[in-house]
Amino acid sequence: MTIAQTHAGAVRGTEARGVRQWLGIPFAAPPIGARRFRPPEPPEPWTGERDATRVGPVAMQARESIMAGLTDKTVISEDCLSLNVYAPSHGSGHPVMVWIHGGAFVMGSGSVPLYNGSSFAERHDLVVVTLNYRLGLFGFLFTGDQGNLGLLDQVAALRWVRDNIAAFGGDPSNVTVMGESAGAMSIAYLLTMPAARGLFHRAILQSGAGALEPSSRLDAETVAGEVLAELGATKHDLAGVPAEKILAVQTKLAQQRGLSAVAPYIDGVNVPCAPRDAALSGEIAQVPLLMGTNRDEWGLFDVLLPQTTVIVEQQVRGRLGPRAEELRELYRSWGDVAGDVVFRIPTLRLAEVYQAPVYLYRFDVASLAFGGKLGAAHALELSFVWNHLANPFSAMLLGGDPVLFQPVALRMHDTWAKFIRTAVPEGGGLPAWPRYDTHRRATMIIDRDDARVEDDAGGHQRRMWEAILSQPSV
Predict the structure, then answer these.
(1) Which end of the chain is more exposed for a tag (fewer CB within 10 A), N or C?
(2) Pairwise CA distance, residues 238 & 35, whole Å
(3) 3-state SS string over the chain?
(4) Cα(365)–Cα(289) distance, rounded to whole angstroms?
(5) Are residues 417 and 339 in contact, defined by beta-carbon separation less than 8 angstroms?
(6) How far is residue 211's CA from residue 44's CA, in Å, rounded to a whole number?
(7) Measuring CA to CA, how many Å separate 441 from each of 294, 295, 339, 359, 360?
(8) Full-prediction pTM beyond 0.85?
(9) Which CATH number describes the domain made up of 2-469?
């Protein structure tokens, strides 16, 4: 057993094969009762040694959520604000990576086995922190007092890292925040938040950089009004409403309005403006970014949730009118349009105006599962970045023998670790990686058998979106 002292008390973890781990450490007080729909508060102190050998409960979510990684034994609770630490068994002052999980802001957790940080700790002497945050309405309902509580949870976890990570062998002055999908979108907003300033020193955004058109405070107020009407409650009654009832209303809301109804919004206080606007004005954390998307992002949704493609097509047609067909002609399918709308174009638009170093990638490794229908789909790169190809999630999405993919997995894992350590993705086995700029628009293309730099990859679609989005009515 291994003991670490946090500001709230001692925690007892485990050590095996050169890696120490502590699981289920509270970084904030339970957001229950009067604390529900309130900003996170510091964790309640304890005496003695707290057992940190089991992960904590995951945030409120539907147990049947696809891709959430839940099992019958997973505990789901509002008392979910905990984190896990993986660290080398030797030394101190190691670089730190803080992981923010994806899941469309309604599902997932930081404790699924895919996010076990042992490979980063053992192979690269990094300290890895994975965390939970409030999801869905519990994290993003606007009550008129505070907004974007799920993002404030992430800030609270980063403050915990600043104040406590040295006791686990980490360097609080060398912190990288990394996330995928909703986690990457979260980081895009964290870059704009005054409360997060100075808590991290570089960032990795995988398949997410905020929304093309973020929801406003007015949008959030409208959604809140609908939720309260459905609950038959006022905001003052919310602390006493059963959690299951709130979750049921959340499910109905998502069916009617889409998942953007329970996602971050520009509240003007905690999130002052959209990430791209913050970059244009210079009011953004000027930290180096490694960011990118997968070539066939929407392949995952086409296979598992085909109705989502129809929804995006309807939204694009409704927004662009006759010009939607002109846009569609530049793509193989409406699924590819959806992947650009949700993931790639927001990423490029942030990279185009960001003033600190940006390294852009595109992940082209195609899955062999589902008869090859996935392609280089959303979330597929996770198994490579974490070097966990044998994970059941990885096996389901990849198909085929993991040995086929191991060389590129090690190159990605090692290159990401280099960026976490030095802020430059060099020396991990990929070719020399130029910074992204608006002259060359260099993009690292990562495929199974090779990696190469391509200038302005997908430029014809990018230019069409620039023309569309430059119109005041769009």
Answers:
(1) N
(2) 10
(3) CEEEEECCEEEEEEEECCEEEEEEEECCCCCCHHHCCCCCCCCCCCCCEEECCCCCCECCCCCCCCCCCCCCCCCECCCCCEEEEEEECCCCCEEEEEEECCCCCCCCCCCCHHHCCHHHHHHHCCEEEEECCCCHHHHHCCCCCCCCHHHHHHHHHHHHHHHHHHHHCEEEEEEEEEEECHHHHHHHHHCCCHHHCCCCCEEEEECCCCCCCCEEHHHHHHHHHHHHHHHCCCHHHHHHCCHHHHHHHHHHHHHHHCHHHHCCEECCCCCCCCHHHHHHHCCCCCCCEEEEEECCCCHHHHHHCCHHHHHHHHHHHHHHCCHHHHHHCCCCCHHHHHHHHHHHHHHHHHHHHCCCCEEEEEECCCCCCHHHCCCCCCCCCHHHHCCCCCCHHHHHHHCCCHHHCHHHHHHHHHHHHHHHHHCCCCCCCCCCCCCCCCCCCEEEEECCCCEEEEECCCHHHHHHHHHHHCCCCC
(4) 22
(5) no
(6) 35
(7) 17, 16, 20, 10, 8
(8) yes
(9) 3.40.50.1820
The residues assigned a catalytic role are 181, 297, 378
Q: Where are the domains of the chain?
A: 2-469
**pLDDT by residue for the chain (474 residues), tens digit each?**
699 999 999 999 999 999 999 999 999 999 999 999 999 999 999 999 999 999 999 999 998 776 778 888 899 999 999 999 999 999 999 999 999 999 999 999 999 999 999 999 999 999 999 999 999 999 999 998 889 999 999 999 999 999 999 999 999 999 999 999 999 999 999 999 999 999 999 999 999 999 999 999 999 999 999 999 999 999 999 999 999 999 999 999 988 888 788 999 999 999 999 999 999 999 999 999 999 999 999 999 999 889 889 989 998 999 899 999 999 999 999 999 999 999 999 999 999 999 999 999 999 999 999 999 999 999 999 999 999 999 888 888 999 899 999 999 999 999 999 999 999 999 999 999 999 999 999 999 999 999 999 999 999 999 999 999 988 654
